[in-house]
Amino acid sequence: MSSICFRSASVKVEMFGVFILRESLKRSSFVRQAHPAVRGTTRRSFACSSSSRRQLNEPLSGAKFPRVGGISTMMRLPHQTDTIGLDACYVGVPLDIGTSYRSGTRLGPRQIRYESFVLGPCNYTGAAPFESLQVADIGDVTLNLYDLKKSVEMIREQYATIVANGCKPLTLGGDHTLTYPILQAIKEKYGPVGLVHIDAHDDVADTMLGEKVTHGTPFRRAAEEGCLDPKRVIQIGLRGSNYSPPNDLYEYQKEMGFQVVPAHRCWHKSMEPLMEKVRNMMGDGPVYLSFDIDSIDPGLAPGTGTPEIAGLTTVQALEIVRGCKGLNLVGADLVEVSPPYDPMGTTALIGANLLFEMLCVLPGVKYYEMEDFI
């Protein structure tokens, strides 16, 4: 495979098809090779005036280059080592040392990128993100996989740089611990944010096995630090057994003012009416979207660390993400994909599709009017 050439020696080169993001994130120093299999493609934006017109990135087309080849980025978009000039970026966090049961989510970003090769740039909703926003894959953040607390600090620092440039991060996880430092970084720029959290678990435990920072505690830690606007937090899809007695269930959420929609309230229903309520609840303020793949039924998405039966369907997942259109989204993540538990790759494929859908509902995305022929 061809490689990317860089002017900066501090950037790691491609390793097994996945790029590692160095701490020189602030530097604008990359140079693309001419071959489209390496650099993706660009198109001219129709949304800009002639005085401010810019070339917008778009995924490498499967109609022009085989889907099995090309650069190993999300949707085979161009790879960039910083966020300067980007409206949104895909970024991986290959973390699984915050898990409490099955590991393997460190392999999630790579598998999601691979499954994304099948995606095209157009959406049947009429969304045209690559005619509207400058998007690239900036690789994976640097981590210390021997030290969770150090990794959390490294994630926060690198995301602070990402969002400081005005770029909206779409994160490929990685276990759910990663959302805590991302929200810390988001707060530095936007203040407390609303949260749309889709998950089988509430992730508001105070501790797990005596530890304050795990994949089961991110939203309690974030709330304690003022990263969340508690009156604009909703958790959808919660289910399974619990360690708390029934009268204590959701006690923390009640205390904080979080809204909870358990999975059994979603069964056999469209999510569109719920998402209308969510949009009214969130208003015009900044919102973060966090989607745990274990919210989906394990019969559809088995590749995850803590599966729970009787979850959401993929149709409901799409309705939820598409229902975020109109929100002031400042970032989103797709977490807990564990490829070793799904040799068919279906879970990562679902994750890749949902990450594309998240891009499509970011502010500023142009929509074409689609005719209904039925």
From TrEMBL:
The keyword Manganese applies. Its cofactor is Mn(2+). One of its GO terms (biological process) is putrescine biosynthetic process from arginine, via agmatine. Keywords: Hydrolase, Manganese, Metal-binding. Pfam families: Arginase (PF00491). One of its GO terms (molecular function) is agmatinase activity. The keyword Ribonucleoprotein does not apply. NCBIfam families: agmatinase. Belongs to the arginase family. Agmatinase subfamily. This is Agmatinase, mitochondrial. It comes from Strongylocentrotus purpuratus (Purple sea urchin).
